[in-house]
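Milestone 3.1: sequence recovery, worked example.
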């Protein structure tokens, strides 16, 4: 079977080790996986049919594609061509937009912070929340384009920096602390508690600390409620920690990284993920 591992050019440079690890694990399990750069693909309607071009040549789509760049339209197009996409176009569409994710997860009765949705042009002169609060780009990743707003000066400056779509959220949580739960299919693989002593964001890539975390029974039930609603392949579900230690939903990472988990454990995430991919392809 042939699988494409799709990255942007910049993403491929940044994740060379991960890419080779993935290709090697796939080979061990009999899956031929090759790196394909998004910039080398052209998708569209050609002679009244959905088509995909690679390096300016019309090509047949692969049996599988692992899309590691944010491009829900590409995922949808590949699915229309008969490719099984990991994660699916629907998961990519929802989970790469924080507003859509919160709308969807809220329907499941999962606790979360007060959250308001705006476009940049709709932001009022005075914020709808008491200070402090957090402003986020709905498509931001890795703690980028997230601003902690403490006063009117922060509010004005942050409004100017943001892109088109934004969410505002209360900050009544344990700042600098969050929990990431790694999911493959319907299985909880591991949970990692991330903490920072110097930043309100707990991202490991921003210099925070991390440790393995054992979910309590009620926390596991909460996670499984989210899992049961989606058709996940590999994702990270992120929670903030409330003042009383309760989990509050934060976001779902469609293109979840595994550097932290690899540093903390012997879990071979990509071995498990490749097995999951093959199981779905052979079903």
């Amino acid at each position: 079977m042939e699988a494409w591992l799709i990255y942007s050019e910049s993403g491929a440079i940044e994740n060379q080790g991960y890419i080779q690890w993935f290709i090697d694990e796939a080979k061990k399990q009999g899956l031929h996986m090759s790196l394909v750069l998004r910039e080398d693909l052209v998708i569209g309607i050609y002679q009244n049919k959905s088509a995909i071009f690679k390096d300016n040549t019309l090509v047949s789509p692969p049996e599988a594609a692992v899309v590691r760049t944010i491009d829900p339209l590409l995922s949808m197009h590949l699915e229309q061509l008969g490719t099984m996409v990991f994660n699916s176009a629907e998961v990519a569409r929802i989970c790469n937009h924080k507003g859509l994710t919160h709308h969807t997860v809220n329907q499941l009765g999962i606790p979360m912070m007060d959250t308001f949705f705006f476009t940049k042009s709709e932001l009022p002169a005075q914020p709808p929340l008491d200070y402090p609060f957090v402003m986020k780009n709905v498509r931001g990743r890795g703690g980028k384009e997230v601003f902690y707003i403490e006063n009117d000066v922060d509010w004005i400056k942050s409004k100017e920096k943001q892109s088109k779509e934004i969410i505002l959220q209360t900050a009544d949580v344990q700042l600098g602390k969050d929990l990431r739960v790694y999911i493959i299919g319907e299985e909880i693989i591991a949970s990692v508690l991330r903490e920072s002593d110097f930043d309100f964001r707990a991202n490991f890539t921003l210099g925070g600390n991390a440790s393995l975390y054992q979910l309590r029974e009620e926390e596991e039930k909460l996670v499984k409620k989210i899992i049961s609603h989606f058709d996940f392949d590999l994702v990270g579900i992120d929670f903030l920690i409330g003042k009383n230690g309760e989990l509050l939903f934060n976001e779902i990472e469609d293109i979840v990284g595994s550097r932290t988990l690899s540093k903390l454990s012997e879990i071979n995430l990509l071995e498990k993920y490749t097995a999951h991919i093959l199981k779905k392809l052979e079903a």
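DSSP finds nine helices and 16 strands in the chain. The longest helix spans residues 269-282.
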